[in-house]
Amino acid sequence: MRYGYWMPVFGGWLRNVDDENMSATWEYAKKLAQRSEQIGFDLSLVAELNLNDIKGEDAPSLDAWSTAAALTAVTSKLELMVAVRPTFHNPALMAKQAANIDHIGGGGRLSLNVVSSWWKDEATKYAVQFEQHDDRYARTAEWLDVLDGVWKRDHFSFEGKFYKVQDNVLQPKPLTKPRPVIYAGGESEAAKNLIAKTCDAYVMHGDPPEKIAERITDMRRRREGFGLPPMTFGVAGYSIVRNTDAEAKAELARITDVKQSAAGYHNYQQWLAGTQLEQRVSLEDYSVSNRGLRSGLVGTPQQVLDRVKAFEAVGVNLLLLQCSPQLEEMERFGEEVIRKGN
Q: DSSP secondary-structure letter at 83?
């Protein structure tokens, strides 16, 4: 199992807790990244939203790509999985930018998490065209074709509905071969087919191991249908590790005290309207993003470690954690779960 975490570029993950003691600042991100690779974490996912999805639109949030480039320069082994939304980035220019960051990190430490945009208001506020769900995935398919093409060979040309590239030359190419790893997630048919055909790894919202096992089986079948090698599988989870089960449940009750008047609630409703999910979500899911509580990483160190092993048994290669406050809770997770699990 590899262990990753979401970089708190929004200043936290809890929609019902105003101040989580982890500010959306470069100083905090740098401190967290440097410490995380010392305590056993392999990867950090840097989300990309220009408005704050968790704390409300008026709250600060860090830019994903400039933050990732800077973090690459001040770390030595941490993989930076940077979210990228095709509607916000020209694919050839993004390929150039990503290749440069790959060189800054010495190769193998820059990866992409391709996300088809869901937030209409954000797109409008940032002068970006917003498309319907399946159109977004059609654009993403072309975007990935261009990205892969310019990374792998010079004098690349492409003409599609959304993009036209003529005789592109991109130097230097990424150090990572055959290319930086491309992660993606999604639960619609359009998303799953696209990911199985064009990406290297599938990342999922939180759910119990038995539900994740069904998704992995389905994606393996799709992948084999395209005659492609096995994928990496990642799962999001919110972790609460305490000395006793009662202490863990008390913390769970605190963070799921839902206030529908919270600043992020309107954004959450837009996400539901713009996303095709396999199952309904609850107001408890609203409290913590990415259905993280459904992964069940809540309890004593042994209970959480047993849960990690259950995910590993069904084929999960990567856990992507959220916790609050991030630094202190990751210290606890590293000591009580990662170290004991190894």
A: E
Quote the CA–CA distance of 332 and 338 in Å, as a whole number. Answer: 9
CA distance 315 to 1: 9
Are 48 and 67 contacting, i.e. CB atoms less than 8 angstroms apart? no
pLDDT in tens, 113-165: 999 777 888 888 988 888 776 778 889 999 999 999 999 999 999 999 999 99
Contact between 128 and 73 under an 8 Å Cβ cutoff? The reply is no
pLDDT digits (tens, 9 = 90+) for 204-231: 999 999 999 999 999 999 999 999 999 9
Residue type, 90: N
**Packed helices 64-73 and 26-36: angle between N→C axes, nearest 10 degrees:** 50
CA angle in degrees (0–180, nearest 5) for 137-141-147 = 135
DSSP reduced 3-state for 231: coil
**What is the pLDDT, as a whole number, of residue 178?**
95
169 and 147 Cβ atoms separated by less than 8 Å: no
